[in-house]
Structures are given as structure tokens and as C-alpha cells.
Amino acid sequence: MKKLLKLVLGLIIAIVILIVAMVACTSFFANEVDKELKKGGEVTAVDSKQAKGDKQKNTPKHFVFGDTIKVGDVQLTISKAQNQSPAQYSESKNGNVVVFDVTAINKGDDSAFIDDTEFNLYINDEQVDSYFGDDMAISGDLNKGKTLKGKLFYDAPKGQSLELIYKPSFSWNDNEVVFKGKN
Questions:
Q1: Helices (H), ranges, the chain
Q2: How many CB atoms within 10 Å of residue 147?
Q3: Could you list the mean pLDDT of each consecutive 10-residue stretch along the chain, which spans 183 residues?
Q4: Beta-carbon contacts of residue 123 (< 8 Å; ≥ 6 apart)
Q5: Within its chain, how far is the Cα of 106 from the centroid?
Q6: Which of 68, 101, 165, 167 is the S-S candidate for 77 at Cβ 3.0 to 4.6 Å?
């Protein structure tokens, strides 16, 4: 009877130690995941006329066209707005197409997805329609250390105050970056 009691007591102690070890490991893992999620959504200025200094943390999420920023692991440059005539066989309601050159560089270890659907253009808080002409807009998977260049096209009149909002599709955070300027 004493042997059985010692065996049961030893088994209970072993189970308690196992439970404590599992809780400790789970807590450690959850903290590491939380750190990675916070790191991945950080927005920093790399080369910005709006923010003072290079690579500042906690910079405002409002930038001007031409700035280079880093959202998570992707370094992003949006050119100044350029006006161009619509394509011959693709009508424009406003008779003008606003074009942005986009350069994205993946500074992380995992691939990143960049697409024109992650960008929205606004004039006076009203969303501007995308323009679909002869050229293809930026879209693609961006592998580690690689660069993707492309364009964004919008059907908008000339001489407007523009607000271009970028919000990554595949992000754990609700980061949204705003670029402002005129065309």
C-alpha cells in the first residue's frame, strides 16, 4: 500500500512539473510571437522631407510624395504625382491620368506581396477611381532582398491636392500610411 501511495504521489508531482513546464513554454512562445507582430507593423521614415532625421521610430504616418519609408520589412518610395493623357482606347472621365512610380524593396527574410489594390487615392476625402489603360499597375510577390518597380494609375483632374493611402493587405497590424501632395 505504501508503494502504491508513493507511486501515485510521484506521478502527481511529475504531472504538476510537466504542466508548469508547458505553461512556461507557452508563455515564452506567445511573447516571441507578440514581439514579431509588433516589429512587422512598424512604420519608419528612411528618406523623408516630412520627418526630421533618418530612420526615426514613431514618426508621423503622413509623408509627402517622393519620400522613402519602411513599412514592416518593405521599403517603399512613391514618386511625385505626374499627369499624363489617357490611353487612346481607354476613356478617362476627367481627361487626365495621375501616375505614381512605386519602388518597393524587401528588407526582410520572408516574401512580401505588393499590389495596386493596397493603395487608394483621395481628393477632398472622396475616393478617386483607378485607371486601367495600356500599362499594367504594380503587382507581385517580392522575394527577400529583391526590388519591384511599377506604377499606380488614377483617373483624376489636374491641379488637385491628393492623398494616397497605402495599407498592406497581409499585415497583422492596421498600419496605414498617407502620402500627400499635388499633381
A1: 2-40
A2: 11
A3: 80 89 76 54 64 44 90 91 90 92 94 93 95 87 94 95 90 80 91
A4: 156, 157, 160, 161, 162, 163
A5: 11
A6: 68
